[in-house]
C-alpha cells in the first residue's frame, strides 16, 4: 500500500483550524500538526490544540515557542484591551486591534520550513475571508502571493523536487458553512477554543469578536452551543 502524502496543518485549537485538520484527514493526508506558543493571552487554545492533535492521532504535533509579545502591537500579545460586544456588522470593517502583525506570514514560514524537511507538498491553513475580523493575512490574494513566494524560496522547489500547495478549504465559507462541514466529518467542537480573552480558568468571555462569530455560526445551524 502506498504511503499517504504528508501535509503540515496549522492548528491553533480553534474551530476553524480543527475543521481544516479534519478536512485534511478526510482527504487522505498524513497530518503533521503545527502550533505556536507566541505569547498570546488566549493560552488555553494550546491545551485545546494538544487535545485535538491527540484525538486525531496526527503523525506528529509540535508547538513552536515564539516571543511575539516582545514586539506587541496587538491586543492578543500585549495588555491592550480586547474589543468586546462589537456589532456583527462592524466586524470585517477595518483592521481591529486583535490583528497580530505578520502572524500568518510568520506561521506559514515555519510551516514551509517543516514541509521542506518532511518532503511534503501541502500546507493546510484555516483562514476565512467571510465571517472573520478583517485581518489582511486571511485574504485569498495574500495566500496566493505567499504560495508563489514559497515556490521560489526553498531548495526543494528550486531543484524541482517539490511544488508547494497552500490549502485554504474554508476561505470562502461562512462560519455556519464551516460548522456544517465539520459536523459532517464528525468534529467534536467541544474540544475547541475560540475566545480571544478567556478567564484565568480558561472559560470563554462570550463577548469578543471570536466568541460572537462562533455563536453566530452555531445559531445559524440551529445549535445552541
Write the layout of secondary structure elements.
Blueprint: E1 6-10, H1 15-26, E2 30-37, H2 44-55, E3 60-65, H3 103-118, E4 122-124, H4 140-153, H5 155-158, E5 165-167, H6 175-184, H7 209-220
Parallel strand pairs: 1-2, 1-4, 2-3, 4-5
Helix pairs in contact: 1-6, 6-7
Structural class, by secondary structure, is: alpha/beta
Helix content: 25-40%
Number of domains: 1
Please provide the ordered H/E string of secondary-structure elements: EHEHEHEHHEHH
**Which sequence of strands runs across the widest sheet?**
3-2-1-4-5
Net shape:
globular
Structure report:
The chain has 225 residues and is α/β, with parallel strands linked by helices. The chain has a single domain (6-220), classed as Rossmann fold. It is 36% helix and 11% strand. The chain contains seven helices and five strands; from the N terminus they run E-H-E-H-E-H-E-H-H-E-H-H. A five-stranded parallel sheet has the order 3-2-1-4-5, with helices on both faces. It starts with 5 loop residues before the first strand and ends in a 5-residue tail after the last helix.
Amino acid at each position: 500500500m502506498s504511503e499517504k502524502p504528508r501535509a503540515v496543518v496549522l492548528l491553533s485549537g480553534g474551530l476553524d483550524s480543527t475543521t481544516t485538520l479534519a478536512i485534511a484527514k478526510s482527504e487522505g493526508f498524513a497530518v503533521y500538526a503545527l502550533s505556536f506558543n507566541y505569547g498570546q493571552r488566549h493560552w488555553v487554545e494550546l491545551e485545546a490544540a494538544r487535545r485535538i492533535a491527540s484525538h486525531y492521532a496526527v503523525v506528529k504535533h509540535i508547538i513552536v515557542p515564539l516571543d511575539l509579545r516582545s514586539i506587541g502591537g496587538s491586543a492578543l500579545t500585549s495588555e491592550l484591551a480586547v474589543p468586546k460586544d462589537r456589532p456583527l456588522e462592524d466586524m470585517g470593517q477595518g483592521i481591529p486591534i486583535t490583528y497580530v502583525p505578520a502572524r500568518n506570514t510568520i506561521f506559514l514560514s515555519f510551516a514551509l520550513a517543516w514541509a521542506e524537511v518532511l518532503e511534503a507538498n501541502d500546507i493546510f491553513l484555516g483562514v476565512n475571508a467571510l465571517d472573520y475580523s478583517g485581518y489582511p493575512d486571511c485574504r485569498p490574494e495574500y495566500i496566493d502571493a505567499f504560495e508563489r513566494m514559497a515556490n521560489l524560496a526553498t531548495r526543494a522547489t528550486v531543484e524541482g523536487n517539490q511544488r508547494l500547495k497552500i490549502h485554504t478549504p474554508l476561505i470562502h465559507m461562512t462560519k455556519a458553512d464551516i460548522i456544517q462541514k465539520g459536523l459532517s466529518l464528525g468534529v467534536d467542537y467541544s474540544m475547541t477554543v475560540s475566545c480571544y480573552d478567556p478567564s484565568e480558568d480558561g472559560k470563554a468571555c462570550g463577548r469578543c469578536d471570536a466568541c460572537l462569530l462562533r455563536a453566530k455560526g452555531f445559531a445559524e445551524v440551529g445549535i445552541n452551543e
